[in-house]
Amino acid sequence: MGVLLFAWAATGYRNDLIPYWAVLPALAGAFWLAVLLEGLPDPGDRNSLRGIVAICCVFLIYPVLTNVAYLDFA
Prior knowledge:
By secondary structure, the chain is mainly alpha-helical. The protein contains four helices and no strands.
């Protein structure tokens, strides 16, 4: 759900800088999935949720990359 909220916020900021707060729902979802991992008895379920957590954490890079492109290093 957090990734979908991030995608919805990203479409609102098309051709503009994406604020850092837009990634917070995805990070909250990743945090709660990581907490949920500890209670699952099946290793297959834990591994599949670890993949989803990794995907949610990758979205943290997106606002950083769009904002760094406008920095002047000269």
